[in-house]
Amino acid sequence: MMIVAQGLAQTFSSAGRPLTVLKDIDLRVEPQGFVAIVGPSGSGKTTLLGLLAGLDRPSAGSVTLDGQNLNHLSEDQRARFRAENVGFVFQTFQLIPTLTALENVLVPIELRGAMRDGGSARAEQRAVQLLGRVGLADRIHHYPAQLSGGEQQRVAIARAFAGDPKILFADEPTGNLDADTGHAVIDLLVELNREARATLVLVTHDPELARRARRVIRLSGGRIVSDTPTDPAS
Questions:
Q1: Burial of 49 (0-12, 13-18, 19+ CB in 10 A)
Q2: Structural domains of the chain, count
């Protein structure tokens, strides 16, 4: 799925004064692209990710996903568009604590309506398959509090892919993990995304994860200061 941002800007009110977090962002990501967004804290990385994903509306400019201008959609329409096309992986996992690993992975499938009309058995089969794929076949009935941080992030990755997203957004997916677990999660995320042939856009401070991308976009002061293709194989 193609991502196009034009003239993107975001301004918030801080202590009664405008605070511009992003300005003049022009960005194009080709279908099945793998882009890492990097930069110092406060440079606007997470804000940009939220705008590209349609979680927030920009103060100016537009985001178009697969030819659909998100500015032209209502809140309900954007929510439906995300449910049908977008997956998310967050630094803080954002699993629902009262649901098991299996039930958490089923959430995006339910949001797409795939469990209606006799689809519940197929949906559960896919969720179990994904949890097995991320190495949690023996933990599917465990609740988040019963899982380690790395296991919770693997559930979150399985959940992100459960709805067959055309685009996957990840915000610091290794930020709360130790080095060894982070390396394993990077390998898993890259491998699953390659298999799914989705567009992957992630925000990271992790230089190893950035090196795995095919393109690195660096932000500073709310602007793109560099946009560099990489050679992940090197």
A1: buried
A2: 1
